[in-house]
Specification:
By secondary structure, the protein is α/β, with parallel strands linked by helices. Helix content is 29%, strand content 26%. It binds S-adenosylmethionine. S-adenosylmethionine binds next to β2.
Length: 187
């Protein structure tokens, strides 16, 4: 698996409204989100999914979005500000060696990991950190681009997730992606 991080300028392309023709961010996330939830989004880029999830959690919920690239975070904040959604969203810059979400331990209802796990230096470390942040019974939607992540590599990610206590609960269909809904054991 390569761990090359997608260049910051690709953030604009990934957040473009044209992407909706291929992947509808509301249809993809809505089955898992309710008002008042705490959502964690590692690797949000410039917020193609963040904005819609912030709408879905409502004023009583929050989305914590963590990216390692300052320019992604800056673009994300600009988009959220334009949409009037900054207050219910926290955009964090990840430290280089972790996601920096220890303060969320046991607080997260839903995690979206879209097209980003293959960029992490260690998927087992990634799943251990997010599993720690999740409530028992919470879910994680994992999707990887089928164009440049091989099926075997995706299945290896699922094995790392299982070691962290995240079991496959469903296999939703997302265009041009490998996808799985994972559930944290314990409920
Ligand atoms: C291909 S982009 C996907 C962006 C977004 N999830 C989407 O689908 O539009 C991958 C994102 O993961 C971020 N990323 C890469 N390594 C990371 C790390 N170690 N911690 C947090 N974010 C990371 C990149 O900066 C980039 O924003």
């Amino acid at each position: 698996m390569g761990h090359r991080i997608c260049p910051w300028w690709l953030g604009y392309v990934l957040a473009s409204p044209l992407r909706r023709l291929l992947q509808d961010p509301v249809a993809i996330t809505k089955p898992y989100i309710r008002e008042g939830m705490t959502v964690l989004e590692p690797g949000p880029g410039m917020g193609f999914f963040t904005r819609e999830m912030a709408r879905q959690v409502g004023a009583s919920g929050r989305v914590v979005a963590v990216d390692v690239q300052p320019r992604m975070i800056a673009g994300l904040k600009r988009r959220l500000a334009r949409a009037g959604l900054l207050e219910r969203t926290e955009a964090r810059l990840a430290p280089p060696d972790s996601l920096g979400v220890q303060d969320l331990q046991g607080k997260v209802d839903f995690v979206l990991a879209m097209a980003m796990v293959h960029e992490m230096p260690s998927s087992s470390r990634f799943f251990a950190e997010v599993a720690e942040a999740m409530k028992p019974g919470a879910t994680l939607l994992l999707a990887e681009p089928s164009g440049h992540v091989k099926k075997d590599a995706f299945e290896a990610e699922l094995q790392d997730a299982a070691v962290a206590g995240l079991e496959v609960a469903d296999r939703p269909v997302i265009r041009r992606s490998w996808a799985a809904l994972l559930k944290k054991r314990g409920q």
